[in-house]
Amino acid sequence: MSRSYPTFMESFPVFRGKKKMSIQTSLAESSQTRIDRRLIAVPWKPSILIAEDSADSREMMHLLLEAKGYRVFEAENGIRALEVAVKNNPDAVLLDLTLPKLDGLTVTRNLRLHPNFKHVPIIIVSGHDPNSYRQKALDAGCDEYLLKPINFDRLQTMLNQMVPLERRAQAKFA
């Protein structure tokens, strides 16, 4: 006998200029994917979304952050960044300023409209002159602007200050 499981849909509005689009994410609950967290002791890892159009840069950041103990999600463009963010609810977001499809500032503005991302740290990671773009990034809702090439010790310090490990764990399971 085949058993049917419910599918949960979430619609996420995205604004590109004056044009409104919608992204939908879904989670189908099945006997294979249904897990009771209270019964499984899995070490919790903070998660980070990297939105970067350069595959080499994305891979380098992924490897270094994973080595520091983070769970890493990736997106290669702005639309995909919104989809991955809504689906996975990362603890922090690293955005390239000049992403294809939607730039980092537009992604930031859209994330800040979503209730789950009002307080999630968003860091713009860019090779563009901070004197020209830092204030624009902060006005869009970013928490920090980090110049490429990335100083990973500085990035780690930023992440630790913005979302201390204890606070991240409490927020996830509260």
Question: What does the model show?
Answer:
It is a single chain. By secondary structure, the protein is α/β, with parallel strands linked by helices. It has one domain (41-173): Response regulator (Rossmann fold, 3-Layer(aba) Sandwich), CATH 3.40.50.2300. It is built from 6 helices and 7 strands. The strands form 2 sheets. It has a 5-stranded parallel sheet, sandwiched between helices. A two-stranded antiparallel sheet has the order 1-2. Helix 1 (55-67) links the parallel strand 3 (47-51) and strand 4 (71-75). The protein is globular. The N and C termini lie far apart (38 Å). The model is unreliable at 4-9 and 26-41 (pLDDT under 50).
Question: Main attributes?
Answer:
two-stranded antiparallel sheet, Rossmann fold, alpha/beta, five-stranded parallel sheet, 174 residues
In percent, how much strand structure appears in the residues?
Answer: 25-35%
> What about the largest sheet?
5 strands, parallel
The backbone outline, from C-alpha atoms, is globular
Give the CATH level 1 class: Alpha Beta
How many separate helices? 6
CATH topology: Rossmann fold
CATH architectural group: 3-Layer(aba) Sandwich
Weakly predicted, low-confidence segments: 4-9, 26-41
Q: In the CATH hierarchy, what is the superfamily?
A: Response regulator
Structural class: alpha/beta
The run of helices and strands is EEEHEHEHEHEHH
- Average pLDDT metric: 80
Q: What is the C-alpha radius of gyration, as a whole number of Å?
A: 17 Å
In helices, the fraction of residues equals 25-40%
Number of domains: 1
